[in-house]
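Sequence design from tokenized structure. All designs in this work follow the same two-part layout: the structure record, then the generated sequence. An example of the structure record is given first.
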């Protein structure tokens, strides 16, 4: 069975997860979150982990990510990692992911790696203003990831923003579909589904 592969990229807190979840509700899709594929940092003291630049594409174990995507595309289940953001390292827990008709890769760097980008049938870039991304990231990281507001602000200014313009923003011009993360999600879902209908055949 052929499996359609969709990649969704964009800046931190731009709305990638919201779009991926909404699309998954319309397509028979499994979502792979690149955030779960940050490299394990158990070998470092916690204080050193806090100083790691997680906004560099090399922070992602993209070799494992590609391997897992290819297994899902081949119809095989994977034991996907989970990342513990409170400890800045990979959790010892894994979770089984079963293949479905659509494989969706969602994350800041999901389209940064050429081999992964090239196996995507559809590539999507979610574009959202910097101030809105910062507002969302502050809310998420303080509420969900146990981060200090001062730490979130410093990381956003010193790492997130410069690395976005260096590695992520250039991907925009390579995407098949560019949507705004500041409009109604239903509009973005419709735009993506229309593109899929026009360009490729998604298994029914």
């Amino acid at each position: 069975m052929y499996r359609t592969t969709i990649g969704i990229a964009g800046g931190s807190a731009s709305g990638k997860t919201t779009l991926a979840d909404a699309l998954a509700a319309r397509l028979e899709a499994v979502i792979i979150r690149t955030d779960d594929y940050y490299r394990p940092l158990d070998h470092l003291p916690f204080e050193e982990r806090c100083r790691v630049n997680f906004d560099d594409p090399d922070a992602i174990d993209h070799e494992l990510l590609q391997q897992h995507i290819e297994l899902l595309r081949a119809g095989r289940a994977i034991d996907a990692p989970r990342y513990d953001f409170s400890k800045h390292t990979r959790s010892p827990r894994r979770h089984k992911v079963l293949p479905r008709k659509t494989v969706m890769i969602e994350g800041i760097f999901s389209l940064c790696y050429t081999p992964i980008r090239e196996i995507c049938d559809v590539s999507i870039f979610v574009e959202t203003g910097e101030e809105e991304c910062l507002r969302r990231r502050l809310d998420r990281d303080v509420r969900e990831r146990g981060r200090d507001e001062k730490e979130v602000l410093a990381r956003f200014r010193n790492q997130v923003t410069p690395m976005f313009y260096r590695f992520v923003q250039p991907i925009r011009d390579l995407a098949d579909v560019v949507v705004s993360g500041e409009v109604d999600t239903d509009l973005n879902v419709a735009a993506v589904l229309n593109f899929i209908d026009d360009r490729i055949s998604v298994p029914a």
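The beta strands are 4-10, 29-33, 78-84, 89-97, 102-106, 122-127, 177-180. We note this feature because it recurs in several other targets discussed in the main text.
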